[in-house]
Specification:
seven-stranded mixed β-sheet, four-stranded parallel β-sheet, alpha/beta, single chain, 417 residues
Length: 417
């Protein structure tokens, strides 16, 4: 028999935040995840709120627009305190690996991307600090021929039209022969260990830096498992600041964030189990009594006092659909959605899609609601993208919602023991 004060189901940013928040209350906490954390697929940036609505303007101050969101939006339900507490916990975990400037005056910053766009975000790795858009410095972007996901000349052309300061791009051969399907971790390891690779790379970049008269150089986010020493070394060699540009999955900054979260969980005494899904449950008197975990075909019962559900949304499998309905698969929680399947999406590719907001609804205590608007189970809370009411991709709010709902769910779970 496995008994815990708080059992968190899901190991992404929301689940990790909930587990840490619950541990801060003094609770004994266990986190169980069916698969590897989704943080390794993320950019490593932590957004709060970049836009309101599909056609909304870019937000400089994300908190200024909270009241403009729909009433069933997670931010309206959790409130500003939960958002700020969630980011405060994030700051505690990430420490000096992330820049604090974004939070000093509640302002978003603009980070250039490999797609040639700028992304508003609220927290960002220090490895990207020298590349923030908007200060007018001339920039050279560098991509590698072995990387099909980043075309620096193309990205530079697009950025040059939208940000102050000249932006130039060049694609180079990496100093070491690489396979076409090389993983970013391999490049990072080569740069971390050096062996002359950094010097060879700097010498390859120098003539392009001079031609562009650039005042900073951006590389894809593969500058070492711990990028600080690599960035310092390249900056000295080139004589200008060097920065990382966030890349698509698998993402080194995402992996670095995952590792910091994992270390924080272990330091907080949270028991972590990965690769074992929860497959069933039993409830009694309106509360979750038993959760059943599948471990290599064997059923392992867990008896938690409080439960946090953080299994993800449609992409992560925390919300399931068929041609007739939308459901949360573990507890069969109510997921509001249009009855007509053809109303789940809009005609325009970037239109106002209902499916983007699919998820359970929660009350201000973080508990999922049934169809009548009553808490489905007294000791169950939800966090992250399993919670509906927000279009994360359009708003650029996913990380902030994970942090806010994770902090709320974990704190309330720990306080209700």
């Amino acid at each position: 028999m496995i008994e815990d004060d708080v059992l968190v189901v899901g190991g992404g940013l929301a689940g990790s935040t909930a587990a840490l928040a619950a541990a801060k209350t003094g609770a004994d906490v266990r986190l169980v995840s069916a698969k590897e954390s989704t943080m390794r697929q993320a950019s490593g940036l932590a957004d709060c709120l970049g836009y309101v609505g599909p056609d909304g303007d870019l937000l400089a101050d994300p908190f200024s627009a909270i009241d403009d969101l729909p009433e069933n939006h997670p931010y309206r339900i959790t409130g500003e305190e939960a958002i700020r507490e969630g980011f405060a916990l994030f700051d505690e975990v990430t420490g000096d690996a992330y820049a604090e400037a974004a939070g000093e005056d509640d302002r978003n910053v603009l980070v250039p991307t490999t797609q040639g766009t700028v992304k508003p975000t609220f927290r960002y790795p220090k490895s990207m600090e020298a590349g923030l858009a908007g200060d007018g410095r001339a920039t050279l972007l560098v991509s590698f021929e072995s990387d099909p996901d980043f075309d620096a000349p193309l990205a530079a052309n697009q950025l040059d039209e939208t940000v102050p300061g000249d932006v130039t791009g060049v694609e180079l051969s990496f100093p070491v022969d690489l396979r076409d399907d090389v993983k970013p971790t391999r490049i990072a390891k080569l740069l971390q260990e050096d062996g002359g690779v950094r010097g060879d790379l700097a010498r390859a970049v120098e003539p392009h830096l001079a031609d562009a008269e650039a005042e900073r150089v951006g590389f894809p986010a593969v500058l070492g498992e711990k990028p600080g020493p690599v960035i310092d070394s390249l900056s000295r060699a080139l004589g200008v600041p060097v920065f990382e540009v966030p890349t698509g999955p698998p993402s080194l900054p995402g992996m670095r964030l995952r590792d910091r979260m994992r270390s924080a969980l272990l330091d907080a005494g949270v028991a972590v189990t990965t690769g074992c899904p929860m497959v069933d449950f039993e409830a009694e008197d309106g509360s979750i009594d038993v959760l059943e975990m599948d471990r290599n075909g064997a059923t392992i019962p867990h008896y938690p006092d409080q439960v946090v559900l953080a299994t993800g949304g449609l992409v992560g499998g925390g919300i399931d659909t068929d041609r007739e309905s939308v459901r949360e698969p573990l507890f069969d929680l109510h997921v509001p959605h249009p009855e007509d399947r053809y109303d789940w999406s809009a005609e325009a590719a970037f239109g106002d899609h209902a499916f983007a907001r699919f998820g359970v609804r929660i009350d201000d205590d973080g508990r999922p609601l049934d169809e009548s608007g009553t808490a489905a189970y007294e000791n169950l809370r939800a966090a992250g993208s399993v919670v509906g009411g927000a279009d994360f991709a359009t708003e650029l709010s996913g990380s902030g919602i994970s942090l806010a709902t994770g902090w709320l769910a974990g704190t309330r779970a720990g306080d209700n023991l």
